[in-house]
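Troubleshooting log. The previous run stalled partway through. Resubmitting the same two chains, unchanged.
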Amino acid sequence: MTEFTEVLGEFGNLVKRFNTTQALSGLSFKIYKGINGLIGPNGAGKTTTIKLSLGLIKADAGRAEVFGFDCWKESLQIRRRIGVLYEKVAYYDHLTGLEHLKLIAKLKGVPDPVAESKEVLRLVELEEEAHSRKIKGYSAGMRQRLGLAHALLGKPELVILDEPTSNLDPLGRARVIEIINMLKKEEGFSFLISSHILPELERVCEHVVLMNKGKAIRDGPLEQLLNEVAPQTFMIKAEPAEPLMKLLKAEECVKDVRLDEGYVYVVVIDSTLFKKRLPALASQAEASLEEVKVAGRDLESLFRVAVLGG
Amino acid sequence: MDLALLEAEIRKVWGRPIFELAVALVFFISLNSVQTLFEITTFPRIQSDLSRLVIFSLIRITGAQMLPLVLLCGILVSLSFARDYEQGQMQTLLSLPVSRAAIFAVKFVAVVLPLTLLSWVLTLFVLLMNYCSPVANSIVVQSVSWALPVTFLAVMFYAGLAAMIALALKKTIASVLTTVLAGFFVWFISTLTPEMLGSIADYLVFTPYKAPIMTLERLFDVPFMHEPGLEATVSPAAFFLLLIFYAVMFLVPTYIYFTKKFEVKE
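Second attempt completed without errors. Output:
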């Protein structure tokens, strides 16, 4: 099992407000050497956190450090050691992919810009198109792969990927996951990956931060989180669901109840007692129990449970 | 400043058809403003003196070029900052290991330098073409060399204004329209007459639109172009200082904001 001892970044009690929107409200977590996942629903504050770590925005309060440098005041030192792929990919569209990468490589101070550009293009399988075609003619998927190549240039100590597979087809997504795994194992890259596609994150992440409403609600090694949370959550399909939910909420052995995609998610404190009480509660609510199962031991279930219980 | 980044930025800003249109526009205006030898008789203040003729033409061309240069500069700087912000290019640039000061400088130089050089080269070309003779050529080159810093400083004023508007509004269309309106407003003020403004009109020679022309007039000491006004009491050096002040008045606060406070929120 991976030891999470080497800390690359540390965020403490971060607060950020955009006009009327509270983007971050006391976010605290650490980025470790390895593959870190940043998970949360839309508006959880993931992209704000990424921008903050690169010095694109300034926190209203709290502490943000990467490699020991202040993210706002010393962002240049951080940017020298980081590669980033944003969800919204925008480059010099009048250049070819290779020309663009050569430019970025020069700016990053890469000793041999041409060779390294070709190498990262080979990794993302964009060699042929990148030599001749201008970026403005690229499909969304090709832009995404070029973005990944851009992020990997110069062998950064930390690669930040914001929704790296959002514009890719299933094969492309699988390839990106393979590349991330390979780079971690063979080259020792560390990643901070923000994504909605949880099954893919589950395949690569070692350490996970679950975010909701601008806070980290769970944070730890993925294996540990899955073990802690999964057995305590039940997924129930009942008809009608509302009366049963009302009764469940009043139960002492139940921590939280939410309806999501037809399932009643019940986070319990005492699963044995809950199993005993459920039939009686269903009968009292005049609801038929169509399906009762323990939430799966996967990232998606963990995410749902954490958000419900958070 | 990184030259590779500057080259990429220049190629982006001056991509087709912007460069071709700018050349055509400035060339046409310059050609239309040059004082031909045949027209001398219509301007009795100009004697049949080649040197004065060249200077008269130079000042007329510089004056005529001012509005298109202002508008072009405003539009291109607005696009360079606001469109980059909207499309996500700004966050890509600001995530690179390049200082904010260098990015700001690159964006400015990518617009201002080619625009100033374009104006200067076309003015030189039109004047040389018109007065082509060994004697005239040296006069043209000498006098036009003064137009370069004057045009540069005038363009810098509008570039600073456009950048400030773009960084404040952060929307491409709104920034371009506001910048164009601001450019027209400054031009409009300079066209007001003493009948409209009374004695205040005398001070219009110090507006950012008229000051560059007045600088050249004072520099070459050309009282033959119109009745001397308040500008005759001001030295060319003072006019240069005024132009420098205009050039930095929006540039400095915008630079400080961009390097110290600017955030990519979207």
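Takeaways: The two ends of chain B are 27 Å apart (CA to CA). Residues 3-190+251-261 of chain B form one domain.
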